[in-house]
């Protein structure tokens, strides 16, 4: 059943008509009257891609798609797929750390300019959960598929079964089993979930988020990353936001949706991310044992980020160049 004929919509037209020369002129434009966003910047930057942490290869891939005139949805999917396939990234895709029983279970979601979205949670044996999430979005009338059902659907869609544990994560897991500490504290400097937001040459926004979640989590645990509104949210009139860190805290504040709504009310991406973290800290007064990083982009291509502890960065790639940006934090 095809709920959405995504490939027939204008994004495809965009791919067809936006040439390299068109992109050459896609530097900065004056803001148009059409934006519902309260102005926080006088120029529009597009195309542009940002992602949580310093994922150079992932943003480069997304930029490659955008700079050839590709749409934002393809850019974010192909961008985050780079990390899903990278076995050295131990919190995304193949090579992600397992749960307490040794299963690698993946969470991912994707959202497009029209508010269409797809998500998979607790997915095993598939290297690219973001692509399965996209299939859920495009090929089913649903938004979230979980566990065995998601895996069965993936095989039906032609995805191949693969062992996601690597030699390295298997060894680490065996080491962890010696103490089997049942605590969900994660190293505040070591969150590698990738959340990516892109604006294409057409000015349309999409986002994706993918993770293996917290290492040695309770079996069955699902974090914020595949939850639309928590780990990711996109509103094509306003902007997008994504999160990394302890997902439970992001879910409690519906963090990404909150940030997009704050931008709708006129806050800059930076101000909105700061407010998002402050809301979380209000519910966790005095608690310092967790990290959250928020990243946001508005319709103008203005970006911002904020986190609980120093260390969170985000990578930005536009015609202006690419850089890894340090963000301010709640605690210094
Ligand atoms: C989760 N937010 O599952 C994810 C974890 C994360 O880098 O961001 N790790 O809660």
TrEMBL record:
State the name under which the record lists this protein: Isoaspartyl peptidase/L-asparaginase family protein
**InterPro entries attached here?**
Ntn_hydrolases_N, Peptidase_T2
**Signal sequence segment:** 1-24
Q: Which UniProt keywords apply?
A: Signal
- CDD domains, per the entry: Glycosylasparaginase
Q: Which domain of life is it from?
A: Bacteria
Looking up SUPFAM superfamilies in the UniProt record yields: N-terminal nucleophile aminohydrolases (Ntn hydrolases) (SSF56235)
PROSITE patterns named among the record's database cross-references: PROKAR_LIPOPROTEIN
